[in-house]
Amino acid sequence: MFAIYIKLSNDQFECVSPPIYSDLIKETYHAQSVIVDSIFPKQVCERGGQMIFIQLNEAMKKHHLDIKCNDKKLNDNDFQITETILSFESPVCIQGSKYLHIIIRKNNSQDPMDFKLPYHSHDNHSDPCGVINED
């Protein structure tokens, strides 16, 4: 519910419209957070160097996002955004970890997108990862 009020000279507020019942405020609030539509690939190489593409629900600018991979903040040179596609190179797997932990937060938002992509063995994938198999 919301209504329009005006402030009077005595610092009181007077309602000048009838109450309106709508979920508009809720929708506006949720639009402030980042929503991810899809992620490719679904798994990443343990040796890193694989491009990750994330489809966002709206066009974003670099300076509006904070991105962390395995608790390391990415700077503007570490990722690209083209309209609604966020892309960056996967880091090397942290020893003992089974997942790449990604956090994407829109500036001025308290609701980050927090997700994990499983790592897989370098020998068990056909996707290019930028690492030459020296075995």
Give the SSE map.
Layout: E1 5-7, E2 13-15, H1 24-30, E3 36-40, E4 44-45, E5 51-56, E6 65-69, E7 72-73, E8 79-82, E9 85-89, E10 99-106, E11 113-120
Parallel strand pairs: 4-11
Antiparallel strand pairs: 1-2, 3-5, 5-9, 6-7, 6-10, 8-9, 10-11
Find the count of extended strands (DSSP E, 2+ residues): 11
CATH arch. level architecture of the domain at 34-124:
Sandwich
Q: Which sequence of strands runs across the widest sheet?
A: 4-11-10-6-7
Number of helices: 1
Helix content: under 10%
Task: Tell me about the largest β-sheet.
Answer: 5 strands, mixed
Mean pLDDT: 79
Gyration radius, rounded = 22 Å
Low-confidence stretches: 24-32
Taken in chain order, the helices and strands follow as EEHEEEEEEEEE
Beta fraction? 35-45%
Under CATH, the topology of the domain at 34-124 can be stated as Immunoglobulin-like
CATH homology group of the domain at 34-124: Immunoglobulins
Return the structural class. mainly beta
CATH class of the domain at 34-124: Mainly Beta
Task: Tell the overall outline.
Answer: elongated
How far the N terminus sits from the C terminus, by CA atoms, comes to 64 Å
